[in-house]
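Lab notebook, bench 4. Still working through the backlog of constructs that have no structural model yet. Next entry is a single chain of 257 residues. Request: give me the structure tokens for it.
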Amino acid sequence: MTISDLALAEMLAEAAGQAIRPWFRRPFLVETKEDFSPVTAADKEAEAAIRRLLAQYRPDDGVIGEEYGEDRPDAERVWVLDPIDGTRAFVAGRPLFGTLIGLMEQGTPVLGIIDQCIIRDRWMAAPGQHTTLNGARVHVRHCTDLAQARIGTTSPQAFESEDFTCFERVRTAAHDTLYGGDCHNYGLVAAGHLDAVVESGLKLHDWAALVPIITGAGGVITDWEGQPLTTASRGAVIAAGDPALAAAIAEALSCPD
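Model written out:
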């Protein structure tokens, strides 16, 4: 029996959620990785559960995951996984983290899921399909004026010092800035609640699933220079509901040398 990529991605999200929920707001050990980011048993168990299913249903596909690294990363089709995007929020008992599941074909993101397994928010996007939230189609809000825009970012501390200086230009020009939210913020852009997200320092597993979600809802997601995200991108990201707003943000981020 064959199963579609989107149906499989939902199975992966369900498996991750089943691994994560028993740990939420329970005592557990928090380890610190080499990059000083936290990791828990929930992160590891969720990714392991996803990988078991991929080995069963897509044994020829590659996998890139935050916790267990790369397996055939040069394959034509590669699944990109972040079992808990927002581990700090998870550790603190905040239900704003999410599981990110992306599928790339020949280096291009084509399918994405953001799954919040506690409050049961699930954004999905696949080729030829509009982005949905819990089964209902969603669409970005078209805000063209940065002075009227509500933007989000995870944390000021997540920026390198030079990037933060640039981000401050955007923050001061925007109508309002919200902190926290991790991948959930991108879902809120897709659903028309936030107008944009601006971040830097993201890795492939942080953004691969987000590209189909944002574009499938009518939005744009680029690097800080306004170019499409690629595996060579440095991880500086603009996601916006309106191309004019994305351009305005990119202009504001263009700090003088």
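Notes after review: The longest strand covers residues 77-85. The two ends are 57 Å apart (CA to CA). Flag for follow-up if needed.
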